[in-house]
Design brief:
- The chain is of the alpha+beta class.
- It has two domains: 14-178, Beta-Lactamase (2-Layer Sandwich), CATH 3.30.450; 264-424, Histidine kinase-like ATPase, C-terminal domain (Heat Shock Protein 90), CATH 3.30.565.
- Helices cover 46% and strands 23% of the residues.
- Strands 7, 8, 9, 10, 11, 12 and 13 form a seven-stranded mixed beta sheet that branches. A six-stranded antiparallel beta sheet has the order 3-2-1-6-5-4.
- Strand 5 and strand 6 form a beta hairpin.
- It is elongated and about 115 Å long.
Length: 424
Amino acid sequence: MSQGDPPGFDAPDLRHFASLINLFHGLLSTLDLDEALSRIARSAAELLELPYVALWLREGEFLEMRAESSRWIEAQNQIRRLRVGEGVGGRAAEAREPLYIEDIRSDPRWVNAAWARQHNLGSCLSVPLMGRKDVVGVLSCVSRGVRHFSRQETYLATTFANSAAFAVENARAFADLERSYAELKERQQMLVRAEKLTTLGTLASGLAHEILNPANIIGLHGQRLQMGGSSEAEAAQSAEVILRNVKRIDDICQTFRQYSREEKLKAAPLDPDSLITDTLPLVQHEYRTAGIEIALDLGGGGLRVMGDRSSLQQVFVNLYTNARDAMSSGGRLRISTQAAETAGQPCWEARLQDTGPGIPPGIIGRIFDPFFTTKPQEKGTGLGLFITHGIVAQHGGALLAESPPGQGATFIIQLPLVKGAAAP
């Protein structure tokens, strides 16, 4: 007996300790509340050699039966819900302390006396499940005939009740965490959509100019054909120019449509270099207007990554837009790709290096934080790089930034390769 045990207390024997240790290991291995409660009810019935054990959980002002163990007898199916203060379990919950009833067959506090008499059940020990702040349920232990529970048996019943309280609060905490994660994910998706809509508004103006150029060419050659007088060779040449420019408009519109539509993440093997060439038409007009030159050095041909094309398009459009804002007085954006390695694993790497003023050392560690921006309020929300970083992370990759003094800023995208796959 330890110094803190009450007089007459008999500590559980080694068999009890072994059973309790197995139970605790089982509880730590599951987050399923019903499974945990069933284990506790079965263990209590076996260790205390009881024909019936029930576990009730508190839901507001009621107790609801969530697990039971009925050995040698049929389960109690009539009473599945009690009001706090009603019956033996409800009174134990209300009093916040164990309640012992010597003979439930004749005690008016037991609400199902006929079932107890049918199976010759006698004594009941109901122990409240004490959570951190309040009672979260009740453990009801029922014996055959009259039984006076010893101090050791009461101790074991209390241990089972404490285990159940731990399982309940652990499961509820996990459920709250899952709910919070779902809400956070939903809010993140809303931010992604909002940022995309903002970018779409900017792109739409540039796309109008991109589409007008081939449209004007089509119009001129159409008028030429309409007027007649052209030789067969000249007519064929005009038709070829018209078809080529119609395809150019179609390509621009298809890219814009892919970027703008809202879809769930659909990962598939893709050629990452094509993401760069496909999305550049979306910003070319703005770059020409701003006096920014684009230099391409795509060496990642033949590589494949697993990704969602629409989401990864947003990554590049966001980085193009960021580079444009950094070079408001003109400059040069160099885009290069290559096979690389990160953390010992092969990857596709893209580097976007601008000739802007760069990122001050004091803030480079914060540029991926939500709502952090150095742009004027009318030009930046502080969400572009945050969302871009999140999309790359969703794909199992990394987005990094470098900014040596006087050398502009370089954003590096690393995406894991599809094993054994290569772009055609």
